[in-house]
From TrEMBL:
Pathway: Amino-acid biosynthesis; L-proline biosynthesis; L-glutamate 5-semialdehyde from L-glutamate: step 2/2
Natural source organism: Brochothrix thermosphacta
Name the UniProt record assigns to this protein: Gamma-glutamyl phosphate reductase
PANTHER family the record matches: DELTA-1-PYRROLINE-5-CARBOXYLATE SYNTHASE, GLUTAMATE SEMIALDEHYDE DEHYDROGENASE
Pfam families named among the record's database cross-references: Aldedh
Keyword Membrane set for record: no
Gene3D superfamilies reported for this sequence: Aldehyde Dehydrogenase, Chain A, domain 1, Aldehyde Dehydrogenase, Chain A, domain 2
Residue ranges of domain Aldehyde dehydrogenase in the record: 38-283
Keyword annotations from UniProtKB, A to Z: Amino-acid biosynthesis, Cytoplasm, NADP, Oxidoreductase, Proline biosynthesis
Gene: proA
Length: 414
């Protein structure tokens, strides 16, 4: 029997226990985790240092290093995040709706845990803590499989979490796959009967591999090739501020903008200021002929650029003749994550929001708001770009399923 099967069996047993755990008990477990994170901060930083040194030695790009880094502020943020999850309403047992049918049966629809959730992810150690907290609050056992680049950090975090849960006899609620090989990842993807749902987080390559190869159900959290369209009626100064925020505030995030579309009627007025502002903030611009004519530092944008989630200080800019053309470009290249229109036209805003197919569509706001905390959900497990079970930021309710409870008084079907 493989180590992974043993972990899966432990998780399956634990899932039954977690499903009936009271809300106060789950909240106490979360508070214990937050305390343990703060107490073991030195240990966590030391283990993370090993990952950073290895990554730097292997020439890992700066955006990846930024995702990998854990410092004291990051650990404190993790602890606060866990505490916030403890304060959120528990969706388990919530009665979504109820009614009485013609036979007099009292039917209620109630939320229940999914069971055992497998999570495959890359780079970000904070995902380890977020996933553990969210799954625990919703009564789900979780098996985590992080990337090899963060193995020391993830092992340390799970060790701290399990230490906090051990006095409560819940240590197997959160487990880490120790082997980061592709073979073990593929084994995890096919653990039907043990894993109830698999959630991949990371690069497009990782997500598509899981979607194509997994035999267990998958919730696809998508990459973010996000667009902002600046309409001819937009407030130009506001547009520059929004684009700057969406690109620069955290370029490595999946909700950062990667392509800006500009209506041709305002291109001559806004492009010099937009390009100048972004370049002053270290952004490399790749544009079409109109954008290249603004400044010699602008590189030619290729089809590949329009397809790419840069996750870096790189931005593609294209001039379009209409809102219809902007929507067509988005339809061709979007990953259906987050799309925005900047406009003072009610008609154009309504056309855009109705016709653009994405998990989140914005009018006059930065795409950087696609986030569980910003939406008021608390921590999130990821941003789902598919349409079944969950879409958009996935908070606590999205980690539950439905059970129908039917109460009768001896009714028989005729």
């Amino acid at each position: 029997m493989s180590d992974l099967i043993k972990q899966a069996e432990q998780a399956k047993k634990m899932a039954y226990q977690l499903a009936i755990l009271s809300t106060p008990a789950k909240n106490n477990a979360l508070k214990a985790i937050a305390i343990a994170l703060r107490e073991d901060v030195a240990y966590l930083l030391n283990e993370n240092k090993k990952d950073l040194e290895s990554a730097e030695a292997n020439g890992v790009a700066k955006p990846m290093l930024a995702r990998l880094l854990i410092d004291e502020a990051a650990v404190e943020a993790m602890a606060i995040g866990v505490e916030q999850v403890a304060t959120l309403p528990d969706p388990v047992g919530e009665r979504v709706q109820s009614w009485v049918n013609e036979a007099g049966l009292r039917i209620s629809e109630e939320r229940v845990p999914l069971g055992v959730i497998g999570i495959i992810y890359e780079s970000r150690p904070n995902v380890t803590v977020d996933a553990a907290a969210l799954c625990l609050k919703t009564g789900n056992a979780t098996i985590l499989r992080g990337g090899k680049e963060a193995i020391h950090s993830n092992r340390a975090l799970v060790k701290v979490i399990q230490k906090a849960l051990q006095p409560l006899q819940l240590e197997f609620a959160v487990q880490l796959v120790q082997d980061t090989s592709r073979e073990t990842a593929k084994e995890l993807m096919k653990l039907n009967g043990f894993i109830d749902v698999l959630i991949p987080r990371g690069s497009a390559g990782l997500i598509q591999t899981v979607v194509k190869e997994a035999t267990v159900p998958v919730i696809e959290t998508g990459t973010g090739n996000c667009h902002i369209y600046i309409d001819q009626s937009a407030d130009l100064m506001q547009a520059i501020e929004i684009v700057s925020n969406a690109k620069v505030q955290r370029p490595s995030a999946c909700n950062a903008v990667e392509t800006v579309l500009v209506h041709e009627e305002i291109a001559a007025e806004i492009l010099p200021r937009l390009v100048g502002t972004l370049e002053d903030q270290g952004v490399e611009i790749r544009g079409d002929e109109t954008v290249q004519a603004i400044k010699e530092t602008v590189k030619e944008a290729t089809v590949s650029d329009y397809e790419t989630e840069f996750l870096d200080l790189i931005l593609a800019i294209k001039v379009v003749p209409s809102t219809t053309a902007a929507i067509a470009h988005i339809a061709q290249y979007s990953t259906k994550h987050s799309e925005a229109i900047l406009t003072n036209s009610y008609r154009d805003s309504q056309v855009f929001t109705k016709e653009v197919d994405a998990a989140v569509v914005y009018v006059n706001a930065s795409t950087r708001f696609t986030d569980g905390f910003e939406f008021g959900f608390g921590a999130e497990i990821g941003i789902s770009t598919q349409k079944l079970h969950a879409r958009g930021p996935m908070g606590l309710p999205q980690l539950t399923s439905i059970k129908y409870v039917v109460n009768g008084e001896g009714q028989l079907r005729r």
